[in-house]
Amino acid sequence: MQTKKGKRGKRPDAGRETPMARKSVTEQIMDQYGLSPDKPIKLSDFDPDDGEGFKSKSDAQRQLRKDLMRIRVLQEALYAEHKQSLLIVLQAMDTGGKDGTIEHVCGAVNPQGVVVTPFKVPSAEELAHDFLWRVHKVTPARGMIAVFNRSHYEDVLVVRVHDLAPKEVWSQRYELINQFEKHLTANGVVILKFFLHISKAEQKERLLDRLNTPDKQWKFAVGDLKERALWDQYQEAYEDALNKCTTAAAPWYVIPANRKWYRNYLVARIIRQTLEAMNPQFPQPAEDLSQVVIED
Questions:
Q1: Which element (helix H / strand E) includes 164?
Q2: Which of 99, 109, 178, 210 is most buried as measured by Cβ atoms within 10 A of its Cβ?
């Protein structure tokens, strides 16, 4: 679907849950923002400011609350069933909204059944192993949801942009990542990968907000400005990673993230739809409970 600007986004029916002649709103969302292995994309075709299809911000937030309630029920069934698991990968430029998404979407589930792992600069021990070693050990156990704040994709993003390894090394990692994710899905892990897409102008506003707001200054790092200076290189690296590592089993979604409320709505809707498709079931009791009497 194209906007007047020629960019993907701005669905005219985004604020309504009315039945569609061919596809539901959720199916449209997954088609609109989900990537396909046989259709390479350019990030410039995606509008990070998308979200105007809703009549108001409150409409999206109202639907978000409904989706989060349903996600919580589905997550409890997933945990109780103990057969499948869900891996959610969040990638973005600095200030892109990874922490906010975790707080406002993933934070709605029972913390007993979710593990959030931030991937920072590799430790000496991690560097002594292959690049996927530190990732594999924190993938979700059966019944669990794992959320990656950054991920194994840093090894084809930061490593590439900062020339931390030769091209012949990092360029092989796309296929290794695909094989790794294929192995996970073959073992009952459903994978959702979200690229939270913000504009350079929006990043500037968010950096200024951190710089000028005392209780947000702890988030500001001078190094963020050095990364910002490499914006174009990162966009190119992200574009390659999205195109090379989009598979039918582990799709990427490009989420317009300038509007935080719309970002949260889209991510929650896709998570809900994915859990619905997984269809986790509460298990039957191990014993016959029909004759159980609880005495006073």
A1: none
A2: 109
Amino acid letter, residue 105: V
- 3 state SS of 250: coil
| Torsion angle defined by CA atoms of residues 246, 73, 197 and 241, in that order, rounded to the nearest 10 degrees | -20
Which residues contact residue 170 at a Cβ distance below 8 angstroms, ignoring those fewer than 6 apart? Answer: 155, 156, 159, 160
Determine, yes or no, domain membership for 178.
Answer: yes
Strands 145-149 and 189-197: unpaired
Q: Residue 7 burial by CB count (10 A; 0-12/13-18/19+): exposed, middle or buried?
A: middle
Please report, for the domain that includes residue 156, its CATH number: 3.40.50.300
CB atoms inside a 10 Å sphere around CB 88:
26
Q: Which residues pair with 85 in a beta bridge?
A: 189
Closest CA to 101 of 247, 262, 296, 254: 262
Q: How many domains does the chain have?
A: 1
Give the C-alpha separation, 74 to 278, whole Å: 9
38-86 confidence digits (pLDDT tens) = 999 999 999 999 986 677 889 999 999 999 999 999 999 999 999 999 9
Q: Are 34 and 253 in contact (CB under 8 A)?
A: yes
- For the entire predicted model, the pTM comes to 0.90
